[in-house]
Each structure stands twice: as C-alpha cells, then as structure tokens.
Amino acid sequence: MRIRDLMTTDVITVGPDSSLKEAARRMLADGLSGLPVTDEGRLVGIISEADFLATEAERGARKRAGLLRLFVRENGVPSHQRTVGDVMTHNVQTVSPDASHVDAARMMEVNRVKRLPVLEEGAVVGLISRSDILRTFVRPDQEIVEEIRVNVMRKVMWVDPERVAITCDDGNLVLVGNMETKSDVELLVELTKRLDGVASVESRLTWEIDNTEFAMTDGPRPPYPKRNW
Questions:
Q1: Is pTM beyond 0.70 here?
Q2: Where in the chain is the domain with CATH 3.10.580.10?
C-alpha cells in the first residue's frame, strides 16, 4: 500500500523560533508525540517527546509521564528561554508519498523513529506514523477476499475466481479449489501472502497439470561433426 493512502494530510507544524512551551501545548492539544519543524514551508527538523526528554535530562529528571505538561505549567521549566530550533532533531528521515508502507516501516525500524514526514517536491504533504502502518493489518476480511478475487485472480492472473473458494478469519486465509496448472497454484499462494492484512495462507489447492517439471526422455545429443563444404 502506498504512503499517500495511509498518511495524515492535515499536518500540524511548528517553526524553529517557537518556544518549547508553545510546541508542548500543540502536542498536548492534539495528542501528538512529535511535530515537523518548517521554515518558510521548508522542512528543517522535527521535535518529539524524545527531544523534550533530552532537554529535561539535563535537569536530572527521571519521569517521562507528564513531561509535556511540566513544560506548559507556569511554574515549570523556563522553556521560554529555549526555542524549538535549539532542541529539535535536524537530521530528519523523510519518505515519498509514492513509497510503499513496507519501505516506511523499514525506515522507522532502522532509524528508531515513530513517524516520518512525507515530502513531495520539497513540501510537507503528510505525516506517516507507526499507527498508520498498523492499520494495514486490520483490514476487513471481506475486503481481503475481494482483492484476491478481483485484483489477483482476475486482473493479474487472468483466471476464473470461481475456481477457488476463499475463507478469511482475522487475516488467516484458506484457499480451496482446483486450478489448471501447478504454477498457477504457486503464484496465487505467493501473491496472496504479499497482500496487506494477510496473516497466514493455508493452501488446499489442487491442479490438473504439473507444469513445473519437465522430464527428459532422451539424453543430450552429441554435437554434430563439422562439415567441409
């Protein structure tokens, strides 16, 4: 699934000159754990709870819970003395809206981040988070079945969907039926495993022709002798 189909498009951003207190207020108000930092429409960084934690660590704090609330209290940390630009992460990993959710998940895992700004022609057009990617694994069972019948079998493989009975329970698929060739069976199972939301595939498929083995009845012929014309 493409990032543009999963990302949040109503992106809340903050400027590098904003105070930490203002950034904390926005994150609390919208239930966010991070904000892209933009300057004249250009992405210059990202500020997250981890950045606040790093700032507070200098003061010997140990508790994560309520940290953002501490920043917005009048008697809390004097965050007006520091700006978002002072503590934000500058080296930001980004992703294209046309990238796969698998690529985004891999980037998050490798870089140990919870979200990625989505850039198109240099502009922030969205934000993709771990929770957005998790949505691909909670697709309705009927939606998965329809994708197999319409997209995989009919449009990609050009085979009659009625040849296979498909049942799906919480993403666990069972395929029962008879297909023309063994290679069709193997291809259907492989393509089905790659679909978003599929947890497992059990194949009870049979085939009419095994076209994956070609027995040689005769041994290889010796090379013909050269002729002098």
A1: no
A2: 3-136
What's the CA gap between 104 and 100, in Å, rounded? 7
Decide: 64 and 53 in contact? Cβ < 8 Å.
Answer: yes
Question: DSSP assignment, residue 163?
Answer: G
Residue 106 CA to residue 210 CA, distance in Å, equals 38
Residue 50's pLDDT band (cuts 50, 70, 90): confident
- What is the spatial distance between Cα 136 and Cα 133, in angstroms, rounded to a whole number? 6
The CATH superfamily of 3-136 is: CBS-domain (3.10.580.10)
CA pair distance 163, 176, nearest whole angstrom: 9
Tokens of residue 56, six digits: 């507070």
| Three-class secondary structure of residue 76 per DSSP | coil
Closest CA to 139 of 31, 6, 4, 3: 6
Helices (H) and strands (E) in the chain, counts: 8, 7
What's the CATH architecture for 139-209?
Answer: 2-Layer Sandwich (3.30)
